Amino acid sequence: MKAYNNTTYSILGILTTGCKSGYDIKQLMDQSLTHFWKISYGQIYPTLKQLTENELVTVTNTSQDGKPDRKEYNLTQKGMDALKNWLTQPVEQLPVERNEVLLKLFFGRHQLAEQTLMQLEDYKSKLEQRLQTYHMIAQSIQTHHENDPDSKYWLFTLDYGKRITSSAIEWCQATIESI
Amino acid sequence: MKAYNNTTYSILGILTTGCKSGYDIKQLMDQSLTHFWKISYGQIYPTLKQLTENELVTVTNTSQDGKPDRKEYNLTQKGMDALKNWLTQPVEQLPVERNEVLLKLFFGRHQLAEQTLMQLEDYKSKLEQRLQTYHMIAQSIQTHHENDPDSKYWLFTLDYGKRITSSAIEWCQATIESI
DNA sequence: TTGATCATGTAAGTGGTTACATGATTAT
DNA sequence: ATAATCATGTAACCACTTACATGATCAA
C-alpha cells in the first residue's frame, strides 16, 4: 500500500465526517483542526485529484440550487482501508513546534527588557484569544454535535488545546514577572 | 534592509553565543533550541554562505591541532544590526503545531479503543522522556553556564518546554482515563 | 584498522504557502 | 451594481529534510 503523508490522510479522514467537497474540507479544517493541522486549497485540490486517480475516493459532479456546482468526493473501500491502516501506525516522533517568540526570547540578552516584556504581553494576549476560541468551539460542539459519533474525539483534541494554551499563558505571566 | 527568515536569524543569533562554525551551530541547536527550533546542515551551510555574501558575517579559515580545519564566522556590525532589528519586530501570529497524535485521535471513531489507548500511552512516555531531557538541560545550564549572560533567557525557554510538556502529559493521562 | 567525532558541503525531492485566475449565486 | 459567499483550480516560489559525498584526526 502506497504511503501518503499526514496531510493526505487528514483529507481522507475528513471525508468520513460528512464533508464532501474541497470547500467543505477547508471549512472543517479552519474550524476544528486549525490548532493542530492546517492546510490550504493549494494542497487540498491537487490531493483530491491524486486520491481520485489512485481510487481511494470517487468523485461526482453535483448541482445544487442556489449555489454553484461542486464536486462531491466519497471514500472507496480502498480509501477506508488506507485510512484505517494509517490510524494503526504508531507515531514515530514528537512534533517540533517552531516558536518565534521563544526564539527571540532565547536571544533576549540583545534586547531591552521593555521590548521583551512587550513581546511576552503580546504573546499572552494572543494566547488568551486562542483559549477563548477553544472554549467557544467546545460549546458549539456540545450543543450542535451532541449525538455526533465524532464529537467525543473532537472534544479530546480541544481539551489538549485548552490545557496547553492555559499553561503557556501561565508561563507568560511567570516570565513577565521574573524578567 | 533585506528580510530573512527566522531560521537565518536563529543562525545569526547563535553566532553571538560563542559558537563560530556551522558545526558549532548545529551542536547548540541540537542541545538547546531543539524543542522550539530545529535545523539541518542542509540549511546551515548555504545560509552561512549567503550571510557572508551579504556581509552580515565574516569568515576565517582556521586550523586547530588535533581537529580538522574549520571556518569561523563572526558577526559584522551590519549583522548585529540585522539581528537586533529582527528582535524588535513583533511576532505576527501564533505558531501552528502539527500534531500527528491529535490528528489520529480526531479520527478515533474509526479505531479500536485499545489502539487509541496505545497511541496515547506511547505519546505519554515520549513526553515523559522529553521532560526528563529538559530537566537535565536545565541542570546543566545552571551548573556549567551559571555566569553566562544568556543563561537566564535559556532557562526561560526551557521553563516553557517543561510547563507545556507537563500539561501534555496530564492531558494524556486524563484522556486515557476517559476513553 | 576501524569506529567515533569533527568538519563542510551539495542535490534531489517533499511539502507547503501565496498569489493568481475564474466564475456562479444571492442578498442588499 | 456590487459585495459576500460558494466553488475550483494552477503556478511560482519558499523552506526544509534526506541522502549523498568527502575527508581529517584520534583513540581503542
From TrEMBL, chains A, B:
<dbReference type="Pfam" id="PF03551">
    <property type="entry name" value="PadR"/>
</dbReference>
<feature type="domain" description="Transcription regulator PadR C-terminal">
    <location>
        <begin position="98"/>
        <end position="177"/>
    </location>
</feature>
<feature type="domain" description="Transcription regulator PadR N-terminal">
    <location>
        <begin position="11"/>
        <end position="84"/>
    </location>
</feature>
<protein>
    <submittedName>
        <fullName>Transcriptional regulator, PadR family</fullName>
    </submittedName>
</protein>
<dbReference type="Pfam" id="PF10400">
    <property type="entry name" value="Vir_act_alpha_C"/>
</dbReference>
<dbReference type="InterPro" id="IPR036390">
    <property type="entry name" value="WH_DNA-bd_sf"/>
</dbReference>
<dbReference type="InterPro" id="IPR005149">
    <property type="entry name" value="Tscrpt_reg_PadR_N"/>
</dbReference>
<dbReference type="InterPro" id="IPR018309">
    <property type="entry name" value="Tscrpt_reg_PadR_C"/>
</dbReference>
<dbReference type="InterPro" id="IPR036388">
    <property type="entry name" value="WH-like_DNA-bd_sf"/>
</dbReference>
